[in-house]
Amino acid sequence: MKHVSWIVPTLLAAALYTPAILGERVWDDTIVQNKQIIAFKSIKDVFFPPDHIPQWASMYCRPMVTATYLLDAALFGRDSTRGPHAMVVLYHTIATLFASILVGQVLRGYDYRWWGALAGGIIFALHPIHTESVCWITGRSDTVAAVFMFPAMVTAIFYQDRKAIWALLLSPLLFLCAVFSKEVALSALLVLPFLLLLVPPPRGADPKEQQRQKEEAKTGAVLARLFGSWALLTLYAIATLVYFFMRKKAGAGYGGSLDMDPGEILGRAAGALAYYLAKVVVPPPQSCLVLGFPATIFTLVVLVIAGAGFVWACWRWKHGHPVRALSFLWFGFTLAPSLAIALRRISEAPLAERYLYLPSLALSIVVGAVFCAGLRERSIRLPAVVMVIAVACAYGYGTVHRGLVWRNNIALWSDTVEKEPESGLAWGHLGKAYMETKGSIDLHKALECYEKAVKVYDDAEGRSISLNSIAAIYATWDENDKAVKHWKAAIAERPTYPSPYFNIGNIYAHIVEQTAKQEQRVDFELLMEAQSYLQRAIQLDPRYRKALLRLARCQMQAGTYHNFVRRDRESALDALQQARQTARRLIEVDGDGPFAQQAQKILQLTEQQIDRLNR
Hints:
Elements lengths: L3 H14 L11 H8 L6 H5 L15 H14 L5 H25 L6 H14 L4 H5 L5 H22 L2 H15 L8 H11 L8 H13 L3 H5 L2 H21 L5 E2 L4 H20 L14 H23 L4 H21 E2 L15 H16 L4 H25 L3 H11 L4 H13 L6 H14 L3 H17 L3 H14 L4 H22 L4 H17 L4 H20 L4 H22 L3 H21 L1
Antiparallel strand pairs: 1-2
């Protein structure tokens, strides 16, 4: 039964999420894989990210997650989608394996602990709240953190049992990898002492160990067990110092304070806690965007119930049954870093389902303990089995249903706008999905979504992005005047947004090219205006590959114009040298990518023209 307790949940986790491998890229997946990860050229970059990475979250220090993206690219290629999806499913499978083992360790004091570990592992494997972390490629940070944090806890308990040197060294190392995956893993510093204190020694120990347990029980010297692990706790403290040192060197921030009075902040904290307490038990309805906090009455009811449950758990702890109290402690400690997101300016999403990935193990512990207790009493054994099967089936169905929502952007954002109709972000993403999804492109629907987004967005950044996209639709329809009008409106909303500058420069350059073909003349003033917009885009985003490529072509065209139309050799040389410099810069930025290959051709042509002019 011992091996079944972790094999079955592991297989269920893999089987249930295998369809996710066929999913498409959603939300930020394309940004991360196509724009951010290409900036990392070495191990040093992984720990100390280079500057000017598009939309890079500077608040975080997550080199292990970055390393997993680089591993994806090495194994499957930069453009792969199924490979990265498969890796996230693998991470969840590994996390489920160690979650089952950890639940088994916590339930040592129960007669049917491996049955409890089986039940708890199944709950973790099938819980619908995990779909966001597993079905979304860039939602992997929690699963990657769990891959390291869960075995770190398992190994720490093993060290306390056996005093094995390899466990003493491995557990802090796994912990360090966990915090380098996501900041929430710092909660292990709070969780670990209680695990070492409350998890009973293994049964079947040698006579000396049994005698020691009896003495501890008589004298109440339970803290001696914790003191006996001083070396392990010291190494954890050292690992934490290493993390904060590296985080400081990487320049990661801690967010700013909210412009709210203490009462509002306290209300947000209570609302966030109530939301997570409810969702960990009853996930539906689920949404990838949660804009508001729960109503006050809902918050009060949930917190009163949870408070009563915690008091009862502490009473049970006092009477020698600490498991339920330990589950509350696990939930509270592992959730605490995510609650900070609701109280400080760290993330755009103050509430999110993925923040429950680690805390949800508390439910697995509770279910495992209740199942063990039910099996011990013959009169309720059958109802206990039926209860676990019913919950597992309900959770499994919810996971499958929610997984279908994450299969592509149209399904995801259609679901989101239905649940959050006042979300400009959701409407904008749905419009983007209608513009970009192969086989489902519908520019008229996309335009409707973007116009709705402009109306409901409450911030300039969101409106500027939507206006930029509306302009792109008009440009596709060759309505260039409307396109430029909306791009300029996007710039007015947010002058530091590089995309509309590039788009105006690109459309002007395109008009110059069309005029040259049709009328055999170059609109030099418009060409210079195009260069001006492109240079501004590059100034705002020095790694803007499309802008660098278009600017190099414009500069080369200007050089040709000066040479053959104006017969101005000096101006021609100056423009061609600028084109050469821009092409070299693009090659440096793109490495061996497709833009660098085009830049190589431009570089070759400019070198040839410069050589001719210098003869």
